[in-house]
């Protein structure tokens, strides 16, 4: 199938909510998204900014552990309180969370109120691996109503930029352009995989000298805790369950009254049950580098190369992965 045929066939699409010309998960609501994009950051805010499926969960886990002396959240409530997802947290709750605080967001910088007060950690991942992980992400959450969608469908939407949080390269190039700002730390998922210890130390140093020294004190006891509790094995056994509990369930009526996200989720989950949608896989899956090379067909690899050339004609951003 050539490119013209691919673009002309009917593509199955996940269900999204549109806000400001950008797509978001269907359980989002306009009011919270409006508050998130207008939020004026304050000192003590630590944003982990990523395009979806580029190492967000891992990076936020590391930051949270550094801030809390290596102690991980052990319940869903504790997890989503100490690592709030800005696009899905009502501002009333968000504003009450003590600072310093690790804040997760998939918003690109140009959709946020950028400020010198907070700290920003941007994590980038090679697009070939990102798109594969993205497909499994959509299969995990039944509220995307994409259980019948194929990888070919998702790949086509990805290279068109018709996915959650917009075009991959628009997001990446925005982050890359800010990498030299004094309050921005730019990392790649691949470098974190290659040397987790160095990644933790780099993040701690960026957060403040006191955090860096704390990790190295007492024979690195806290650093070893950070490494242990941000490991793939630990997060699979805990964080996966937190996301299932919060986002693949019908919330108690009382919780729905105070939180529009939980209200929307519960409504969607009832529809999921009626339609027989299924959830497959895990939120945290393989955590590896290079899966895209195996999964993408030769035509898709060529399509991706063309997409990269088109979007990065005036940037050296792909030098981040020159060794891959």
From TrEMBL:
<keyword id="KW-0808">Transferase</keyword>
<dbReference type="InterPro" id="IPR027417">
    <property type="entry name" value="P-loop_NTPase"/>
</dbReference>
<dbReference type="Pfam" id="PF00685">
    <property type="entry name" value="Sulfotransfer_1"/>
</dbReference>
<dbReference type="InterPro" id="IPR000863">
    <property type="entry name" value="Sulfotransferase_dom"/>
</dbReference>
<dbReference type="GO" id="GO:0008146">
    <property type="term" value="F:sulfotransferase activity"/>
</dbReference>
<protein>
    <recommendedName>
        <fullName>Sulfotransferase domain-containing protein</fullName>
    </recommendedName>
</protein>
<feature type="domain" description="Sulfotransferase">
    <location>
        <begin position="44"/>
        <end position="238"/>
    </location>
</feature>
<comment type="similarity">
    <text>Belongs to the sulfotransferase 1 family.</text>
</comment>
């Amino acid at each position: 199938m050539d490119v013209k045929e691919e673009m002309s066939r009917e593509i199955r699409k996940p269900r999204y909510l549109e806000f400001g010309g950008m797509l978001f998960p269907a359980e989002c609501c306009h009011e919270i998204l409006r508050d998130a994009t207008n939020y004026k950051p304050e000192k003590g805010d630590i944003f982990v900014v990523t395009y979806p499926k580029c190492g967000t969960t891992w990076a936020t886990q590391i930051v949270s552990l550094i801030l809390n002396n290596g102690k991980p959240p052990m319940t869903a409530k504790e997890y989503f309180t100490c690592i709030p997802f800005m696009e899905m947290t009502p501002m009333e709750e968000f504003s009450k969370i003590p600072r310093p605080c690790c804040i997760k967001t998939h918003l690109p910088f140009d959709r946020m109120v950028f400020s010198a007060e907070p700290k920003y950690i941007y994590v980038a991942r090679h697009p070939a691996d990102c798109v594969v992980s993205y497909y499994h992400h959509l299969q995990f959450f039944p509220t995307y109503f994409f259980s019948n969608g194929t990888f070919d469908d998702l790949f086509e939407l990805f290279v068109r930029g018709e996915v959650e949080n917009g075009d991959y390269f628009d997001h990446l190039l925005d982050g890359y352009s800010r990498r030299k700002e004094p309050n921005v730390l730019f990392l790649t998922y691949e470098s974190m995989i290659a040397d987790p210890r160095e990644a933790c130390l780099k993040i701690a140093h960026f957060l403040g000298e006191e955090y860096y020294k704390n990790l190295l004190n007492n024979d690195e006891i806290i650093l070893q805790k950070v490494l242990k509790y941000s490991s793939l094995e630990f997060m699979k056994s805990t964080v996966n369950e937190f996301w299932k509990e919060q986002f693949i369930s019908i919330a108690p009526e009382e919780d729905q009254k105070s939180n529009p996200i939980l209200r929307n989720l519960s409504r969607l989950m009832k529809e999921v049950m009626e339609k027989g949608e299924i959830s497959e896989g895990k939120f945290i899956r393989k955590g590896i580098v290079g899966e895209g090379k195996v999964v993408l067909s030769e035509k898709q690899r060529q399509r991706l190369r063309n997409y990269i050339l088109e979007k990065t004609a005036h940037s050296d951003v792909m030098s981040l992965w020159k060794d891959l």
